[in-house]
Amino acid sequence: MTVTIPLLSLRNVSRSFGTFKAVTDVSEDFGPEELNCIIGPNGAGKSTLLNMICGTLAVSSGSIHFGDESIGGMSGDKIARLGIARKFQVPSVFPSLSVVENFHVSASNALSANELDEILSTVNLSVDRDTTASELPHGKKQWLEIGMALSMQPKVLLLDEPTAGLSVDETRATSEFLRTLRGKVTVVVIEHDMAFVRDLKAHTMVLHHGKVIASGSFEDIENNDLVRDVYLGRR
Ligand SMILES: Nc1ncnc2c1ncn2[C@@H]1O[C@H](COP(=O)(O)OP(=O)(O)OP(=O)(O)O)[C@@H](O)[C@H]1O
């Protein structure tokens, strides 16, 4: 029997703001090179959880392990250097640089021509390689930023609403290319768009009022009565 050791492991992770508990006792494992999704209504604690994983916010209690390293209290820079890359909801790119230059600037180690081509092709930007970032439409800026995070050659890629502001076709293309990352990098995506989450076929965790109310395949989640109640607004 093969035992998969989780790459990222959260145990009883909590975060309070004053007396308000934004995240309470979250325990979850993210396996190596798996696709994972975190969903939940507005204010459920999704971004707070991601912020704790990448070191933007300290945990109030509980532990976060990356491999066998405890990263719960580490600075964001140190966590990034260990191999956890984060893309925020609003694209932040170098507007006057070309797509390829943006990738080179983001790379932690020099990218070979093959690595560069692979990233360009993954995020559908091969034909735009020499386009100045400021001239890209919003959707391609989102992809550029995912490419910039991939240029760091991370072990974990954290994405906060990568489909924000994208068209239906762009959203579908995004889930298609994220699926190709399975087997290459551990991906954790926060999303609101249920069609996208269904398409992604990822391990899905549902947060509600800061607590995990369900975790499993998207089919399990979709058929879970409590999750349906939460999304239909009955709780
Ligand atoms: N710095 C902060 N100070 C005080 N309260 C905060 C802070 N950051 C988040 N919160 C509160 O914590 C709760 C969880 O917020 P969070 O942004 O993590 O939710 P979310 O699930 O990502 O929501 P959304 O889907 O709307 O982005 C919210 O009630 C929010 O107002």
From TrEMBL:
Cited InterPro entries: AAA+_ATPase, ABC_AA/LPS_Transport, ABC_transporter-like_ATP-bd, P-loop_NTPase
Domain of life of the native organism: Bacteria
Keyword vocabulary terms for this entry: ATP-binding, Nucleotide-binding, Transport
Name recorded for this polypeptide: ATP-binding cassette domain-containing protein
Residue span(s) of domain ABC transporter: 8-234
Lineage of producing organism: Bacteria, Pseudomonadati, Pseudomonadota, Alphaproteobacteria, Hyphomicrobiales
Keyword match Hydrolase: no
Coiled coil: none
GO MF: ATP binding
Xref: Gene3D superfamilies: P-loop containing nucleotide triphosphate hydrolases
